[in-house]
Every structure is written in structure tokens, then in C-alpha cells.
Automatic annotation (TrEMBL):
Protein name: Efflux RND transporter periplasmic adaptor subunit
InterPro entries: Beta-barrel_RND_2 (IPR058792), MdtA-like_BSH (IPR058625), RND_pump_MFP (IPR006143), YknX-like_C (IPR058637)
Domain YknX-like C-terminal permuted SH3-like residues, every copy: 309-375
Pfam families linked to this entry: Beta-barrel_RND_2, BSH_RND, YknX_C
Multidrug resistance protein MdtA-like barrel-sandwich hybrid domain location: 95-216
PANTHER family: BLL4320 PROTEIN (PTHR30469:SF11), MULTIDRUG RESISTANCE PROTEIN MDTA (PTHR30469)
Family statement: Belongs to the membrane fusion protein (MFP) (TC 8.A.1) family.
CusB-like beta-barrel domain: residues covered: 228-300
TM stretches of this protein: none
Domain of life where this protein originates: Bacteria
Amino acid sequence: MRHTLRIAALLVLAALAGGAYWYFVKQGGTVAALTAMMSGAVSGNAPPPGGSAGAKPPGGGPPMSGAIAVEAAAVRVGVVERTVTAVGSLLSNESVVIRPEIAGRISEIAFKEGQRVARGTVLVRLDDAIARATLAQAQASIAFSRAELSRADQLVRQNTGPLRNREQASAKLLADEAAVQLAKAQLDKQVITAPFDGVLGLRKLSVGDFVQAGKDIVNLEDIDTLKLDFRVPEMFLPAVRVGQTVKVAVDAFGGRSFDGAVYAIDPLVDVNGRALAIRARVPNPDGSLRPGLFARVSLTLTTVPDAVLVPEQAVVAFGKDQYVFKVVDGKVAQTRVMLGERRNAEVEISKGLVAGDMVVTAGQLKIRDGVPVTVLPGKPAGS
């Protein structure tokens, strides 16, 4: 007896499930319509199956018989950028440490720390007393050599002197001229100038210090334009080009971004990290950025100026394919689409939709291809 009751209960549940499938799936019915129909069965006024009781068409007109209320939004056309993010470091456009080429004692420091200087500005002078004396000695020797050469040449023309004396005098004059040039070069090395426009750092020596050749004095940085070094995975190699734009963010200026452009790509891929080294220039006219800062980089690979965008909730997955329900003449058309980039709760539709289309954003579970729908009024696009 108990076994028979179980079988009967299972048959009743199967019948209820089949009826629910027929009503909700095949007929497009809703819970509200079912409730109204049950109430109407008692009063004798049941609403038609598959419709939403009291549903109205767009514009607030009279209810459409059998139409399902949904929310919809119009397709938006906007700009979509495909980007890749990375981290990098800021470098000076030009950077050098000022060092003397010869040993000497510092007689004058002609700059202030942190000062902006132009190319050719005198920075440091070394004691040049010995260099000046050497130059004077070389100049005196060259005067005597010229006189000797003149006398030897005169004797040769008069056939009273050997030709060898004139050749020795000529060689001596050439050697003395070279000595004068060397003395002038050594004298010039006593004055150290700025090789390019830039900002000086902190000096490491004082007046009176004796410095050896190659000793650090001060660093000079050109920061009007900064270099930005960063790396991206090798998979982006086909998409990276010279001239692409970058946006740079640093922790020192939260919420502010700086624009730059790629100007060089290293032809050698790093075998350790399998990454591509890229260098960009970032204008820094106000001097806010400084070399050595840690930077977060967003590299723009491609830009689509007229991309078709829909809210993310409008896309429904069926297996491996993506679909949207497009509203056409009061009915929905299930449309297969191809997706692109996702940005700010929106999805780029690369294929399947055009500007001006209307897509369902809420209520996809109760509709199917070809059923009549009513777009709820007062819903803003993308809500």
C-alpha cells in the first residue's frame, strides 16, 4: 500500500513539473500571470496565459496581450582602447656626473646645488698656475724655433749652410707648436663646464680639495623630458609600435596621470623574463616628476574610435557562444555576437550589432527568440 502511494505521489509531481514547463517555457508565462489566472478562475476573469498582468508597451499605452516586461538599453558608440599595464622606472633624459680629466686643486666652485644651468656654464675651476707657466714656456720656445728656422733657411738659399740644419730647425718648430697646443689643452682642462642644459645635484667636494682625475664632483640631470623604461611580455611584440601612447602614474602624485610616447624598442628580448624592453619619453615641463620614481604604465596598443558598446548584463552565454536579445518591432531576436574589450561595466561588440539597436538588459530568463516584449518605461540606458 505504501509503495503504491509513493508511485502516485511521484506521478503527481511529474505532472506538476510538466505543467510548469509548458506554462513558463512554452507559453512564456510569469508568476504574476499565474497568480492572476488562479484568482480569475475563482472570479471568472482569468488573464491570458503567457502574459504579464497589466504589462504596458513603451510609451505607457494600453497593455499588450502576451507581451513580457523587460528592461532594455540602446547600443552606445564610443572609443575603446586596448591597453597593457606594466611597471617601470623614470630616468633622466640626459645624466652625467661631472668629473675632472686631470688632477688638481679646486680654486673655485661657480655653481649652487640644485641650480639650473645652461650648456657651457662654468662649474668648477682648478688651480691653473702650473698650466699657464707651461704654456708660456712652450710659447717662448716656439719663438726661438721660428728664428732658428729663418736663419737656417737663409743660409741654405745662400748656399752657405747645410740642408740638414734647416730640416732640424723645421722639425724643432713643429715640436714646439705641438707643445703649445698641449699646454693650451691642459689649461682648458682646468675649467669644467656643463655639457648640456640641466639641473645640478649635490656637490661632493669643496674649495681647496685636491682631486684626482675621475673624481666625482656633482651630478647634472636633464629633467625637462624624462625617459621611461618598462617591459611587457613577449606575446605583445606584434602589437607594440613606436609612437604608441602611454599613461604614467606615480605614487608621489596619486590620482594624476602623465602622458608619454614610445620612441624606442629594444630588438633583444630578455631571455630570463621573456619580456620586451620599451623606452618612452614623458614631457616634464613643470619638473614635477623626478628620475628614479617607480611608475605604473598603461600602454595603448590599439584605439577603436567608433566601437559598439552594450552593458555587460545584456550578454548571455549559451555554451561557447555569446548572445544578446535585440528588440525589433516589439519582439526579441536572439542575436549571436562577438565580444571585444570590457571597460567600465560595458562590453565592446565587434560583430552582431550596429548603432541604434536596442538590447534587453534584464529579464532574459523569461524570454525566448521571437516572443513579444514590452520595454519598461523610465529605465535609463545601462541601468
